[in-house]
Design a protein that fits this description.
Oligomer: homodimer
Pfam family, one (chains A, B): HTH_Crp_2
Structural class of chain A: alpha+beta
CATH architecture of the largest domain in chain A: Sandwich
Largest interface: A-B, 43 and 43 residues
InterPro entries (chains A, B): cNMP-bd_dom, cNMP-bd_dom_sf, Env_Response_Regulators, HTH_CRP, RmlC-like_jellyroll, Tscrpt_reg_HTH_Crp-type_CS, WH-like_DNA-bd_sf, WH_DNA-bd_sf
Keywords (chains A, B): DNA-binding, Transcription, Transcription regulation
Order of helices and strands of chain A: EEHEEEEEEEEHHHEHHEEH
GO cellular component, one term (chains A, B): cytosol
Shape of chain A: globular
Largest sheet of chain A: 4 strands, antiparallel
CATH superfamily of the largest domain in chain A: Jelly Rolls
Protein name (chains A, B): CRP/FNR family transcriptional regulator
Chain lengths: 257, 257
Amino acid sequence: MIEVKIGNGMAVTDTPVAHIECFDCPIRHRAVCARCETDELEALEAIKYYRTFDAGQTVIWSGDRMDFVGSVMEGIATLSQTMEDGRTQMVGLLLPSDFVGRPGRESAAYDVTATTQLTMCCFRRKPFEELMIRTPHIGQRLLEMTLDELDAAREWMLLLGRKTAREKIASLLAIIARRDATLKLGPTRGRIVFDLPLTREAMADYLGLTLETVSRQISALKRDGVIVLEGKRHVTVPDFDRLLGETGDDSDGGMPA
Amino acid sequence: MIEVKIGNGMAVTDTPVAHIECFDCPIRHRAVCARCETDELEALEAIKYYRTFDAGQTVIWSGDRMDFVGSVMEGIATLSQTMEDGRTQMVGLLLPSDFVGRPGRESAAYDVTATTQLTMCCFRRKPFEELMIRTPHIGQRLLEMTLDELDAAREWMLLLGRKTAREKIASLLAIIARRDATLKLGPTRGRIVFDLPLTREAMADYLGLTLETVSRQISALKRDGVIVLEGKRHVTVPDFDRLLGETGDDSDGGMPA
DNA sequence: CGCAAGCTTGAGTATTATCAAACGAAGTGG
DNA sequence: CCACTTCGTTTGATAATACTCAAGCTTGCG
């Protein structure tokens, strides 16, 4: 273990990771480098390094100088904003292959936190920006990913502005369930089983609720048989369509048209 | 006046507009074409056309086939989503130079509505997409604009999830005031005067409130001297810092860091 | 003039937040 | 091994914010 100082002086334990060749990278076909040719991958290879974080650790604080951009390799991170008085709102959930940072921006705009064990593939920012100018494939893919994120953010605006607490919880469970099923190549209908990667408090920050309301609504969904819980985190959805019916979205699940 | 049929059969009055040369375009330096060279502008010129809409008219409905993308030239439009039971949430406010549509997407993802008299500069979608491949300047600018929109969306998520009704109204007024001041090259401190481009209902849809709550909070801000109203739409802010103090943001106005 | 649209205000209600207490699991130190 | 703590969570009682339903007010227009 190596002690590393980041921006505001907070000490973070940063474990060295075996270097993976881009060619063998598990997120290669979905990340910002998805469209890169072999020579372009080599250029990225030269400016990349890995960092890992434990669950709960902060990757970077809003306002801190940010000398890298990068991709989530493994694990889950969150983007959040905090008001002066402490109210916080999560504004992004970062999954493997998602991109962190904005080329051209000096400092972080949001707090980035690992909610599980997290591995990131980081690129030094300046060289990455120079590479982007020479390599349209990177910018093209980043545009595509950013447009997708914008759609997701707008979907989330509907949830935050107009859904009830129960619908919010159901929507979050549906999103996690669907993603988990896709990842494991399982079905996205019928019985689905997964683990919640978020605490009740993180869910509350994501949904614009208090953690008590989250807890109560989860209990209510459990009582009504929409979900079955083993422990606090292990969820079984006996009938995914039933869950979708609780989200308030139309039956296709509320994907942007 | 020409009668034009759009996607779902709704008739829209569509006024022909004198063709403006890109070179003379008032939004040229801020729109998606901002980085284009002379020859690139000529290529855009060849595939562009203007359309105008009256206040209240729908530009396109979510799910409708969309054969164009384009920029707002003049006026204001909104992007919104509607749930089955009629609850609606505005997810974007489109101002002059803002871009509408997503290259590569066949159908509209949101309802687009003109809230004032609106002029749009439209590009036929297919030729635009082909042009984008040959012209990195367009994609680069679109990436920049999309990243800005994503930041704005995330700022709005904080508002929707965590701010009180009063803070929401104050935030909206501050955003409109600031923009108006910037546009008119006025001060962004002290006394600011502007017109609201939105009805109370549109404000409610933007803020995730009911129109009654919007009305009450505007009355409250008026009673407390934070704003002065002449009629329903003409607003005077005697002390912009005072208004900012009501938004819940830190004093810099809550711009993303 | 009378109507419609947009807006304001009031009364009562409901949903969610707040404050408070207590539980279970995991980890620590005596 | 067993208190003892801590963290995440659940649940209850109460309060507050915003919603719903309803009435009535301006303003502009046919």
